[in-house]
Amino acid sequence: MNRIFRVTTLALTTAAVSTGALAQNQNYNDPTRGFMLERGTTAPNKKASVDLRTGGDQDFSAGARLGLPGSELVLNHSRINPRTSQNEALFKVGLRPLQAGNNLVIDWAAYGAVAHYDSDDAQQQGYTEESTTNLGAGAAFTADVDRFILNFNPELVFDDGARDEASDAYLNLGMGAHYALPETDFGRFEPGLEVNVTTREDRFGDSVDPSLMLGTRWLYNENVTLDVSMIQATPENGLADASTEVSIPGYVRLNVAF
């Protein structure tokens, strides 16, 4: 009986150690974005991922991120249009990391984006013309500090579809902080908060509220990542006031890497 007990105990201990080692050795393909902000990294060459998102009052939509030599092409991330999730192409170039002090390395990247929209009912959606072309340029800076993932994402947008007193050029300042929790047998969790402050004014000349997303990133396995935001505040349809939503599970963005 004692021998059986010892053998069973040894087997369980070995299984636990093996499982822990497997969790620690997991190699995740972390998306090169946060909840809503770009990060200072690019996807490796020939690597691709697809975003699917739904939840809250968000329309179901998708985007793609394609790794190129030293750069990345992002399709339909909806970074530079305040009114609709329209088609958009964003090209991001990874730059040499910055050294800040002896131990702090800051990854950073610069990008440009273009979005063209042409619709028969465009004026009903808040555009001055049936055809608009928005342009954007920005940079993203990301650093890992004691398990914290800190992100800064300034961005300049030229809004061709601004109407009445709305801003035709404005600055976005995105800031984010996530914390990487220890590994588990079912992946790693990174709770975080992201905020985007803007100088944009709506068509009535009112300053637009900041956007906010609070939730967690779940790195489920090496190819699947889930971003879940239970609290978010986002101005909609080009207006100034942000509507706050609290929901469970909330806004969900699924990233699948190939």
Distance between the termini: 50 Å
Total number of distinct structural domains? 1
Average of the residue pLDDT scores: 83
Shape: globular
Could you tell me the strand content as a percent range?
Answer: over 45%
Strand order, main sheet: write it out: 1-2-3-4-5-6-7-8-9-10-11-12
Low-confidence stretches: 1-23
Q: Any idea of the CATH class?
A: Mainly Beta
Q: Tally the helices.
A: 1
Cα Rg: 21 Å
Helicity level, as a percent range? Answer: under 10%
Q: Main β-sheet: number of strands, strand sense, barrel status?
A: 12 strands, antiparallel, barrel
CATH level-two architecture:
Beta Barrel
According to CATH, what is the topology? Porin
Please provide the ordered H/E string of secondary-structure elements: HEEEEEEEEEEEE
**Count of extended strands:** 12
Assign the structural class, choosing from mainly alpha, mainly beta, alpha/beta, alpha+beta, or little secondary structure. mainly beta
CATH superfamily: monomeric porin ompg
Characterization of this structure:
With 258 residues, this protein is mainly beta. The protein has one domain: monomeric porin ompg (Porin). 9% of the residues lie in helices and 53% in strands. It has 1 helix and 12 strands; from the N terminus they run H-E-E-E-E-E-E-E-E-E-E-E-E. It has a 12-stranded antiparallel barrel. A hairpin with a 2-residue loop joins strand 1 and strand 2. The radius of gyration is 21 Å and the shape is globular. The relative contact order is 0.16.
